[in-house]
Amino acid sequence: MSSAKRFGVFSTTFARHVAKKLATLTIGGVFVSDGAQRLRRKLAREAAAVKGVGPIAIVAHAYYPELLTEILKQRALLSGAVPLHVTVPHDKREQAEAIVAGSDHVHLHSVPNRGRDVAPFLSLLNAGELDRYDIVLKVHTKRSPHLLDGNIRRKLLFALLFGESNANRRVMNLFADPTVGVVGWGGCYHKNPAYWTDNKARALDLADRMGAGDVARLGFFEGTMFWVRPAALEPLRRLGLAVEDFEAEQGQTDGTLHHALERCFTIAAWSAGYDVLDLGGRVLDAGRPGGPASSGAIRSQPARSAGAVGQPR
Length: 313
Known about the structure:
Pfam families: RgpF (PF05045). By secondary structure, the protein is an alpha/beta fold. Helices cover 38% and strands 14% of the residues.
């Protein structure tokens, strides 16, 4: 490809990226306003009953514990008593404890401040803490101070992923199909190769190690917030990554292990035969035909001790 053509592709991708950011700041800001959310809940029609799905939970990483109130408020919109597993840096545990005091079914896990939200989530996954759940919502207290739309993007993702009772039921109904592995907002799902940024070589190496080199391609939910079936992440779990494998926190914005893994959650699901869907049920990427999802070969393992994860409450 000529230099001029490469520049043209980059310019087009950058323009689309800026357009998405502007849409988040404008339309997204209106969407997540208190008034708009109250209106949508008032006008919402009763959704169909939830089909057969097993236990669900929320896993939230709380680098900013003060934002846990947003998660607790929206958890109430989910049907039943939904456990909330909160991973929190050691030095912020007391703050988190004070915020969740009096809330039922909340489990705190103290973790090193390493690997952002990804390393703590994998620690829970690897330790068997998520084996008891059929579906898990992965979120975190995103602020991204280096991004203009960081706060609005968090509120928008929270609203879309678990902000309304009827929408929550629709997500549960999607997971009634056992071949569905990951469900997220299509607006932050990226397939353009430009979104590999500085992570392509490392992500593809991880894919090879998962036995997924033949299906490895770009397609991921930017920001690592989505609904996921823990069984779909078994290839990722088999890597056995530990917190110590992640770089020390230095405010990095790209090129780290957790940035590469951000692009591997979906690769793990595809390689196991699970589909990736948007919140409306559209298939964003289909799982590998004949994979373990269709044969039932992947099953959750018996729960193991979470000693390395932290101190559950």
